[in-house]
Batch of 2 targets.
Target 1
Amino acid sequence: MSDDLDALKHATLASLAEATDLRAWDAIRVAVLGKSGSLTALLKELGKTAPEERKARGAALNVLKTELQAAIDARQAELEAAALEARLAAERIDVTLPPQPRAQGLIHPISRTMEEMAAIFGAMGFEIAEGPDIEDDWRNFGALNIPAHHSAREDMDTFYVPAPEGEARRRVLRTHTSPVQVRSMLTRTPPFRVIVPGRTYRADHDATHSPMFHQCEGLVIGRDITLGHLKGCLIDFLRAFFGVTDLPVRFRSSYFPFTEPSMEVDIGWSRKTGEIGGGTDWLEILGSGMVQPKVLANCGIDPREFQGFAFGMGIERVTMLKHGIPDLRPFYESDLRWLRHYGFNPLSPAMLHEGV
Ligand code: DAH
């Protein structure tokens, strides 16, 4: 092979080896074999070659062309394979990674309020106590100093359940969470602090009353519990729950058979705008008082040694006020549109990390 062909061959093979992608490879292909490529030019010049040299030159050029074409094709295959490898590596999917959690259900506002109450009172050293929805008459009324024929029984529109065979005490669907006060005093050793979030029942049904609703009871028993403790505890709770640090709180003298003295607790709000803590109006939120000594005695606690305070509030009511929910009925209707609007995302950071 003549020197010029040899030089072209080596130069082409060297630049092919240096080409690291298909774009560089294609530039070489065009520069050698394209219409105005160097080898194409040599082939075109063949006609000008002296006739005695033409045959040998033609044969040499053809050999070179075949050789270079093969080298170009081989490099193309290599570069295409490398490009595919690179793409597969870049687009690799790790099938062992756990999927991102997707929140599906939402927390019902009632559950959310109960969780918030548990968090706030939990931070104050309260434990959660529970009792059954079907109670006996004595725990729901008698032990709480609500004797038979007391008007409070009618006020509460009680659902009665027949006494089980062979038992004297008839049962009721508990009309309040207060019977769990009785259960707590009978089973715990003072001092103790409990809250009782749970279901309650009254035969009453309209826009602001449901036959099944929820309350949260509280009971603190100790040797030197005073009205001051009651007030401090409830003021702190209400300010934390509504998220208003200077929320006005008012204690108003009232009557409950199971407390003496008894107080209703109001918070400041604006009747016009519904703003909690704003305006000059008062809104009743809680019933409370110092546990009536007879109730302590009924539950086996010596009133000369121990005293305490108790409180109870409606969970729906505080939830509606806090979140501006106007109607009670949709709480129990399982309407997805309502739930999506008022529900809480269980995976939201606020839900996961909050101390409320
Ligand atoms: N049980 C009362 C009710 O259902 C609420 C209540 C008031 C509970 C005063 C208490 C309390 O523990 O001290 O209306």
Target 2
Amino acid sequence: MNIYTFKQEADFVSTGASLIVSLLHTKPRSVLGLATGSSPIGIYKRLIEMNQQGLVSFAKASSYNLDEYVGLPEGHPESYRYFMNDKLFNHIDIKMENTHVPNGNAADLEAECRKYDAMLEANGPVDLQILGLGHNGHIGFNEPDESLVGGTHVVGLQEKTRTANARFFPSLDDVPTQAVTMGVGSILKARQILLLVRGEDKAEIVKRALKGPITSQCPASLLQCHPNVVVLLDQGAGRLLS
Ligand code: F6R
């Protein structure tokens, strides 16, 4: 695991963006695993700029997002499909049909999960999986529990997660209670993982995830078992690491 801590936001962003850009330069047909949340936004902005300047192309790439809320109406501004279109896909040359986000409105959510896994199996493995880190140690929406699930599944969101995400909704009651998420097994199949964490409030969970025991009570700790993880932290998030 290679861990880098950055004083400057600009360096955090350019390091993350360069990893993705050099992958696309060497493998234009890359399969990208993407995340929503605040941590990758600066990197997505930089990728848009570089794409528009002709420095990188996504025309042959495909993408699979980690997760999606259950039950938000299509086009809802807080749905993860909306987020990805708005923050990245609408502004780069990726083919929309090559972008995949689980459908949280599928009539049969179980069938949707199996379909998502089958697509990942057929088109994967993911070359580079971007992850953020939840305050409770979640990756995707794999919440701490006595056991974890390998494949894509429907998950009940913990109060800590709903409360953290309530800032994006009119009230806590409006935050969905369920999501569809890729499982930890699918995440760990990626060839390379890029974990992005920003903010002082994540310092303790960063330490637990990267240096603490590997346990289902901190799903991100499983990343310690992966052979190719790059972690980018801002100073706040990295402050408890020696
Ligand atoms: C997003 C996701 C979540 C976030 C995590 C961190 O698709 O799966 O696990 O990555 O909650 O969110 P931020 O980046 O807002 O700190």
